[in-house]
């Protein structure tokens, strides 16, 4: 079972790596946000899996909290990106 | 852990969207803290780094513009300085204690006492909390005061405008419809977040958590409210005077606890005398000062957020 | 016990594969909307698989309840943020590329 | 054995990256980000020093004997929160600077202030 958990951890790390590449390269700002979002959800899962891997699953509070923070972060980024976009347009016109 | 840190470094080469990547970076470092057993620290780092400070930076970017102009100086000189300093530091680490070695100097001084004695002496399972609130209570009080001072500083630099006059066309124009799905979701989530904050606040003795984390979580609920329903509604919900009063009240609760223990004949912030037997006293003391910390942190974060956003809105 | 282990192992495997395919889509798809499609659809099921697997391991306890909360939160937040993201992108004038396969049959 | 010093090298790389951002970038917001990265590297250093191999998180649990050192955790916990408070203060200073000078680029601010000195 530990082997399966380890495999899952590695898979999640790979997914996070790919999301990170997208976040670094992403042509538009929305690509980056999407990658950040995906990164966040995978972090939540990774913490849960890691907790089981090390045999101390008490730390799920942390992953609940990450899920929340991830959501708030994405919403905040979206709101502010919209505003910055408006400002840019206002400056252009 | 190692590979991920390396990725975090690669991230730094990107020039655009730095702040967003900073959010990822914080999540990564929080993960590293989890791997290194520092659950409480990971909690705080995620809350503060990925949540609150990213939001602050975004709010700043709104009012300052997000394009970075290329520097007129050659990057070679700083690069050289950095490489030389780094090399010197690497050379210095050769004498450092090895990673994870139980015989490290840090582990042989007071830490042993904390690990061995605190579960019985203070009576709570989370050693981080007991060290934070009991053994090193002075330090923590200093930190709370620093945070309070930061709020005072921010408020003296940027005023919160209670009623931001958002231009009409922005609120009614076709391009700024509110997100109905988002609002419903926020309404579902905010009570949950608040309850979770209270859980973290009062469960901090037994699991990861405590005043600092709970304060930030509480603040993040209000921030979510402000983001989805607009700043004016949020300021109506948590008025500015309330922020000022509560931020000061949190510090006073902390300091007052110390005064009470002095009045009962012990040293400042010595909780043993707060109840009939010392372990209970420690329990009460930690609970009360964590509450003080939580109130201060939450209100300070909300206050700073309001100040930033009202400045960002006002700058348009 | 053994059956539970096997089932949860399989679920973990399925979750990993889903996550990887989502990430692959995120990397390889040609435009933003396709990437959203890849990422957000796999996200929920991937999370569900992982959490189910871990819940099988946890048996019935506070841990399982917390896992359920994680799952519910992810199910609530992930589609919402995907929705908000697409809406914001659409509003900001980002349009899907009308991706037509090149005449020579090769990838552009 | 060389590998067991790896954590310090990671810290140094991060630290230098933050340092480089601070001194080489002219944008004040970017400088704050650099400072934060520098700060994080210090956090990681403290926490990694506190780690004991085979130890687990310092919350009492049944059937575990070896815990990591809680002291660095406490120091860093408070340091993070103080860090965000100082970051916020710095950012609000930047906002005021932007209001006063209309830019957040260091070189442009210097230009403006020297011009003002010459004029005044």
Overview of this structure, please?
The complex is a heterotetramer of chains A (93), B (316), C (108) and D (120). With 93 residues, chain A is mostly helical. Chain A contains three helices and no strands. Mean pLDDT of chain A is 76; it is low at 89-93. Chain B is globular. Chain C is mainly alpha-helical. Chain C has one domain (2-91). Chain C has helices at residues 2-28, 32-58, 62-91. Chain C is elongated. In chain C, 41% of the residues are buried. At the A-C interface, helix 1, helix 2 and helix 3 of A face helix 1, helix 2 and helix 3 of C.
Strand content of chain D: under 5%
The CATH topology annotation of chain D reads as Helix Hairpins
Shape of chain A: flat
User: Major sheet of chain D, described briefly?
Assistant: none
Report helical residue fraction of chain A. Answer: over 70%
Tally of separate helices of chain D: 4
> Could you spell the SSE succession of chain D in H and E letters?
HHHH
Q: Helical percent range of chain D? A: over 70%
List the helices and strands and how they pair.
The complex is a heterotetramer of chains A (93), B (316), C (108) and D (120).
Chain A: H1 2-25, H2 29-53, H3 60-92
Helix pairs in contact in A: 1-2, 2-3
Chain B: H1 2-10, H2 18-35, H3 39-64, H4 76-93, H5 105-108, H6 111-121, H7 127-135, H8 137-157, H9 168-172, H10 180-203, H11 211-229, H12 231-237, H13 240-263, H14 278-314
Helix pairs in contact in B: 2-3, 3-11, 3-14, 7-8, 7-14, 8-13, 8-14, 10-11, 11-12, 11-14, 13-14
Chain C: H1 2-28, H2 32-58, H3 62-91
Looking at this protein, list some descriptive labels.
heterotetramer, A: 93 residues, mainly alpha, disordered C terminus, D: 120 residues, Helix Hairpins, 4 helices, elongated
In short:
The complex is a heterotetramer of chains A (93), B (316), C (108) and D (120). Chain A is mainly α.
């Amino acid at each position: 079972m530990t082997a399966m958990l380890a495999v899952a951890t590695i898979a999640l790390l790979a997914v996070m790596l790919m999301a990170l590449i997208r976040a670094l390269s992403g042509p538009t700002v929305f690509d980056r946000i999407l990658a950040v979002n995906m990164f966040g959800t995978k972090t939540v899962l990774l913490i849960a899996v890691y907790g089981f891997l090390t045999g101390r699953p008490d730390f799920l509070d942390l992953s609940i909290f990450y899920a929340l923070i991830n959501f708030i972060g994405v919403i905040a980024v979206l709101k502010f990106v919209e505003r910055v976009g408006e400002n840019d347009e206002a400056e252009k016109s | 852990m190692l590979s991920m840190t390396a990725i975090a470094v690669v991230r730094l080469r990107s020039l655009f969207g730095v702040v967003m990547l900073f959010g990822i970076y914080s999540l990564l470092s929080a993960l590293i803290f989890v791997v290194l057993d520092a659950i409480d620290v990971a909690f705080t780092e995620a809350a503060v780094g990925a949540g609150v400070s990213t939001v602050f930076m975004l709010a700043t970017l709104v009012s300052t513009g997000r394009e970075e102009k290329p520097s007129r100086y050659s990057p070679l000189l700083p690069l050289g300085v950095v490489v030389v300093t780094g090399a010197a530091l690497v050379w210095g680490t050769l004498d450092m204690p090895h990673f994870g070695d139980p015989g490290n100097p840090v582990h042989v001084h007071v830490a042993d006492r904390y690990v061995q004695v605190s579960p019985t002496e203070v009576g709570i399972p989370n050693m981080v909390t007991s060290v934070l609130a009991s053994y090193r209570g002075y330090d923590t009080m200093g930190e709370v005061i620093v945070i309070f001072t930061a709020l005072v500083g921010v408020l003296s630099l940027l005023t919160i405008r209670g009623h931001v006059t958002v231009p009409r066309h922005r609120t009614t124009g076709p391009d700024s419809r509110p997100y109905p799905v988002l609002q419903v979701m926020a309404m579902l989530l905010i009570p949950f977040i608040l309850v979770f904050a209270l859980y973290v606040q009062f469960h901090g003795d037994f699991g990861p958590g405590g005043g600092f984390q709970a304060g930030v979580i509480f603040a993040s609920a209000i921030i979510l409210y402000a983001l989805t329903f607009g700043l004016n509604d949020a300021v109506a919900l948590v008025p500015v005077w309330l922020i000022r009063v509560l931020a000061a009240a949190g510090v006073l609760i902390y300091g007052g606890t110390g005064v009470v223990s002095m009045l009962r004949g012990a040293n400042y912030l010595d909780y043993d005398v707060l109840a009939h037997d010392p372990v209970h006293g420690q329990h009460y003391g930690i609970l009360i000062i964590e509450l003080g910390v939580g109130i201060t942190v939450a209100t300070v974060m909300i206050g700073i957020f309001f100040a930033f956003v009202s400045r960002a809105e006002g700058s348009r | 016990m053994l059956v539970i282990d096997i089932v949860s192992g399989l679920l973990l495997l399925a979750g990993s594969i889903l996550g990887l395919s989502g990430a692959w889509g995120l990397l390889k798809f040609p435009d933003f909307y396709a990437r959203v499609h890849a990422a957000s659809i796999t996200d929920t099921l991937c999370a569900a698989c992982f959490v189910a697997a871990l819940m099988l391991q946890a048996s019935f306890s506070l841990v399982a309840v917390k896992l359920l909360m994680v799952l519910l939160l992810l199910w609530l937040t992930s589609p919402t943020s995907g929705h908000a993201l697409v809406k914001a992108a659409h509003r900001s004038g980002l349009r899907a590329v009308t991706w037509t396969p090149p005449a020579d049959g090769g990838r552009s | 054995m060389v590998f067991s010093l790896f954590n310090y090298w990671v810290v140094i790389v991060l630290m230098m990256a933050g340092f480089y951002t601070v001194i080489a970038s002219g944008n004040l917001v970017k400088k704050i980000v650099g400072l934060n990265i520098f700060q994080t590297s210090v956090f990681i250093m403290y926490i990694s020093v506190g780690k004991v191999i085979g130890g687990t998180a310092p919350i009492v649990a049944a059937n575990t004997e070896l815990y990591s050192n809680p002291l660095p955790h406490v120091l860093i916990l408070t340091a993070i929160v103080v860090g965000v408070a100082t970051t916020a203060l710095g950012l609000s200073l930047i906002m005021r600077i932007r209001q006063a000078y209309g830019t957040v680029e260091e070189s442009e601010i210097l230009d403006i202030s020297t011009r003002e000195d010459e004029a005044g």
